[in-house]
From TrEMBL:
Source organism phylogeny: Bacteria, Bacillati, Actinomycetota, Actinomycetes, Streptosporangiales
Family statement drawn from the similarity comment of this UniProt entry: Belongs to the transketolase family.
Listed CDD domains: TPP_PYR_DXS_TK_like, TPP_TK
Subunit structure: Homodimer.
EC number: 2.2.1.1
SMART domains for the chain: Transket_pyr (SM00861)
Keywords: Calcium, Magnesium, Metal-binding, Thiamine pyrophosphate, Transferase
GO molecular function, one term: thiamine pyrophosphate binding
Domain Transketolase-like pyrimidine-binding, chain residue ranges per copy: 306-469
InterPro entries, alphabetized: THDP-binding, Transketo_C/PFOR_II, Transketolase-like, Transketolase-like_Pyr-bd, Transketolase_BS, Transketolase_C, Transketolase_N
Name the UniProt record assigns to this protein: Transketolase
Length: 608
């Protein structure tokens, strides 16, 4: 590399350090030292290797840069300033109320693909973006800047194994090995070889460099771009707080502004006005998309016995035929979730993610960045392992569709380790989420199709066992709706149920009617958002609500109902799973949990 190029890169990196110090000082908080260690790495990437059109952030040929170590946001914002897309005045609003330059990056900025800051997530999401690049036959590259501390996260190694196994050559991880974490040294310190051996075992091309040498960085990035059939990891030995003696390679300086920012700026050579011209993509190719056709959803006859998980698989396959943007991901349980119906018809759009639920969700987030419509399925119980990824998907305002099968005690003999009993509460608590729980096959098929147009994180819960079809085919079930299945002017109470307990509620209502106690029944298939109008009407006309759910007492259907009507003051009795189940037949499980038809009848009689 020419001497003037080396000098330019050194000046650009120095400016990034200066601006990181200034931004943190203006905010009175932040992570300047974590930004300073990676300044050379990102300066070379932006100046010589990145292909990105800042004027058209939606250009499908753009590379993708993911800041997995999201706390180093001052570095990212300083890069945006150097690229000319934000000004110095905005840079100094970082971390302030109303600023789009948040403490950790979010897609509020048009050049940010995904919210980061919960460590160990950027690389798994990058895997999903790289998978999308292969699917859509685009030449873009995915660059992920990781910190060495986050390499202790299991999700990093889920990503490493998947990327290595799939040979994602369009993916490069750049690891800022600065030796120091939040409270002290990292596990392996500056032993880049320890990390190299691990990545190499997963099939990665590994490069170890001095992360403050622009020439070495440039060579490594160039080598990554030429590598075929496997991803690349660049392990860069750096010094935290590089360039300022007060904090350079010193413990106790993480996550706080420098004590004397002005002195630090002077030590770094003072403010500069260096600009970086990021090269735009060379190609204007459009992403490949699959053909779309007519929508022919499955239809089930009233009275049939069909598991809602079966209806999910068949409906998803029908949706895949109608929409070429739909992709399916599964956690090695496709025969149980019934995603296999989609996989058999559209193998190129089906992705086996194995027993790695964090990577499962992260890949879905990555693929939706590229405009795909992902459905990701596993057992409802196992989605709890990926909760932080789902939470961060909400922060990213990512549109993903999650399917949790084998929910509740009604799965039967498998016992409590397999029972999703907390999933409704978990999903309801997410920002902007949608939570659906169908009771029959036709309702399931309708909701699966409906989910394709839902923004944000949406979740649909399916049941293992077969249940009666009660709705005719072709009916639409909008998000936020409900169905009143029984109602009369003489109703003395209303039973509110969803999923498997709808059938128990109907049976209980029939038994109560024969004994002269008329009650209404509401199928609250949309648990979030709920149909508040229907619930308010029931609360004001009968004054007595009984909720029944195959879920824990806390945070599920009952609490959703209570939230909607609490100000009206009706009596609300919540039937839910309160004990730790064992192994038993499905009907025995429902009885033991106190959520079967007999328990509902007894609850109504006690209430009245």
């Amino acid at each position: 590399m020419a001497e003037n190029d080396l000098q330019y890169l050194a000046e650009l990196a120095a400016q990034l350090r200066v601006d990181s110090v200034r931004a943190a000082a203006a905010a009175g908080s932040g992570h300047p030292t974590s930004s300073m260690s990676a300044a050379d790495l990102m300066a070379v990437l932006f100046a010589r290797h990145l292909r990105y059109d800042f004027e058209q952030p939606d250009n499908p040929a753009n590379d993708h840069v993911i800041l997995s170590k999201g706390h180093a946001s001052p570095l990212l914002y300083s890069l945006y300033k150097a690229a000319g897309v934000i000004g110095d005045e905005e840079l100094l609003t970082s971390r302030r109320r109303g600023s789009r330059l948040e403490g950790h990056p979010t897609p509020r900025l048009p050049w940010v693909d995904v919210a980061t800051g919960s460590l160990g997530q950027g690389l798994p999401v990058g895997v999903g973006v790289a998978m999308a690049g292969r699917l859509e036959r685009m030449p873009y590259r995915v660059w992920v800047l990781c910190g060495d501390s986050e390499l202790a996260e299991g999700s990093i190694w889920e990503a490493a194994e998947h990327a290595g196994g799939e040979g994602l050559a369009n993916l490069t991880a750049i690891v800022d090995v600065n030796r120091l974490g939040q409270r002290g040294p990292t596990r392996h310190g500056w032993d880049t070889g320890a990390y190299a051996r691990r990545f190499s075992a997963f099939g990665w091309h590994t490069i170890e460099i001095d992360g403050h040498d622009p020439g070495e960085i440039d060579y490594a990035l160039q080598d990554a771009g030429k590598t075929r059939r496997r991803p690349t990891v660049i392990l860069a030995k750096t010094r935290k707080g590089e360039g300022v003696l007060e904090v350079e390679n010193r413990e106790g300086a993480h996550g706080k502004p420098l004590k004397d920012a002005d002195q630090a700026v002077d030590e770094l050579g003072g403010p500069r006005d260096v600009r970086v011209t990021v090269r735009k993509p060379d190609e204007t190719a459009e992403p490949y998309r699959f053909d779309s056709g007519p929508l022919e959803p499955p239809a089930y006859e009233v009275g049939e016995q069909v598991a809602t998980r079966t209806a999910y698989g068949e409906a998803l396959a029908a949706l895949g035929a109608a929409r070429g943007d739909v992709v399916a991901l599964d956690g090695e349980v496709a025969d149980s979730t019934k995603t296999e119906a989609f996989a058999q018809r559209f193998p190129e759009r089906f992705f086996e993610m194995y027993i790695a639920e964090q990577q499962l969700v992260a890949a879905a987030v990555g693929m939706q960045i590229r405009g795909w419509t992902p459905y990701a399925a596993t057992f409802a119980a196992f989605l709890t392992r990926a909760h932080d990824f789902i939470r961060m998907a909400g922060v990213s305002r990512a549109s993903i569709r999650l399917i949790g099968s084998h929910a509740g005690v009604s799965i039967g003999e498998d016992g409590p380790s397999q029972m999703g009993l907390e999933d409704l509460a978990m999903m309801r608590a997410l920002y902007g989420s949608t939570v659906l729980y169908p009771c029959d096959a036709n309702q399931t098929a309708s909701l699966i199709i409906e989910m394709a147009g839902v923004e944000g994180v949406s979740y649909l819960r399916t049941t293992r066992g077969s249940t009666p079809v009660i709705y005719p085919p072709g009916e639409r079930f909008p998000v936020g709706g409900s169905r009143v299945l029984r109602q009369s002017s003489g109703d003395r109470a209303t039973i509110v149920a969803a999923g498997v307990t709808v059938h128990e509620a109907l049976a209980a209502a029939g038994e109560l009617e024969t004994s002269g106690v008329p009650v209404g029944v509401i199928d609250l298939y949309s648990v979030k958002p709920v149909d508040s109008a229907v619930l308010v009407e029931a609360a004001t006309t009968t004054g007595n609500l009984i909720t029944v759910e195959d879920h824990r007492l806390e945070g599920g259907l009952g609490d959703a109902v209570l939230d909607a009507v609490s100000e009206l003051g009706p009596r609300v009795v919540k039937l839910a799973v309160t004990e730790l189940p064992g192994s038993a037949k499905p009907e025995e499980q429902l009885a033991d949990a106190g959520i079967d038809r007999r328990a509902i009848v007894e609850a109504v009689k006690r209430l009245l």
